[in-house]
Amino acid sequence: MKNTIIKKAIACMTSLMAVSAIALPSLSANAETLTGNDIAASHEFTITKDIVLFNVDASKIYEPNVEYSYSVGPVTVGDNVTITDGNNNVVAVRSGIPNAVKIKGNLIGADYDSITTLTFGADTKVNSNDEGSEVTTDSKHVDENLNIKIDADKIYGKDEETHNPPGVYRYKITDTTASATLTAAGIQRHEDYNEDIYLDVYTKYNSNKDGLVVYGYTLFRSTTTGTETTNTTSITTESEKITGYDVESETLPSSGVVSGGTIISDQYHTYNVEIKKAVAGDLGDTANEFPFQIELSDGKANADFYWIQSGDTEKLGTLGNNGALVLGSANSATDPVTSAVTPPSSTINLKHGESCTITGLPTGTKVKVSEYNNTGDTYTVDVKKNNVAVAISNEKMAKGVTASMSEKADVNKTESGDVIIFTNTLSDISVTGLFLNIAPFIFITAAGVVLITLFMRNKKKDNSDNMI
What we know:
By secondary structure, this protein is mostly beta strands. It contains five helices and 33 strands. The protein has three domains: 2-264, no CATH class; 268-425, Collagen-binding surface protein Cna, B-type domain (Immunoglobulin-like); 434-468.
């Protein structure tokens, strides 16, 4: 008997600790029995919404820019829905009373209401999980609190002629965020994610018997059979009362580390790309800084990332509402009157051995890189992405010419960041090249001299003949 009690206690504690683990859906489940002064006509508490972060190199990244929407309202409960506690006490579950439970998001100055929002998007870099790792840590996420307020006077109907009795009243909090909003922010949601979370409010009479007080509450999603949402099944076990999750999914260790598990929380996956510069050939100028342009596009809105050029400081970038951004410039400008050409003034200039790394790009990002030749030489340009040749606009890049990737490339390499290398080659020129360059002029000149000589000889001969 004693061992059985201990086992039940351990199981209960494990369930409680697991409610914040990332294998559970992203709104943490909770339960609380109030004591002392906490037993009152009004009670406030919070539940946590989290987003698990991933990066291909486990780099620190910016959290996604997304606004979640929530609503709360009473649940209409059937006649046969009951709760049985550990002492086999059975009580009927009652339909919630309107406006007795309200919610509030994280907007400064917001009031409690039946609808609210939670906004993510702080400009602070946070740790992320390795995209390719089978081990995931729940601390590598971002979260915001959804505030909940219970008003027992509303449940009781203090201002009404007819009052409601004590008991358990049921409400439902729903994540109403549109799927298009999640997609636009790069959020991936598991198919088993449940948008609804139920709230049972436990009330009893106050000491004067002229009102109700809140002495506990329970948050859950559904029973293990999944029929709780139909309001036809009793909640009979302690685990169902505490969380309502499948008990088998609540077996994670308290350390919060998942190995090969399923993450039900919303996920934000990000990727990196490095643009490298190389100059080859004995005549290639390894000290010259070539202007680069990096075009990013992903069709999403307001995704934050950061980029750093060799020897420079880190910079924040944001994919705008059109899901696109251009870094640097590789396009010259031509004066329409004088036809004078002005080289690009780029924020990204790379010489041999330097690179520009962009970190934290959301799923679906594409990249197109261009390079401008600001030298007087003509280079042969070779571009590779992850050691695979990439088609470009100009393989021979003369002075003032731009070489661009012909197509946008996906940034989606999962085992490590994508690498794009631009290699400019200028090999030795044969010394005979000078002769070949001026040979036509020498030939013309020599031919002229020969013709003049022949003409003069012939003329001299003619003169001699005439004298005879």
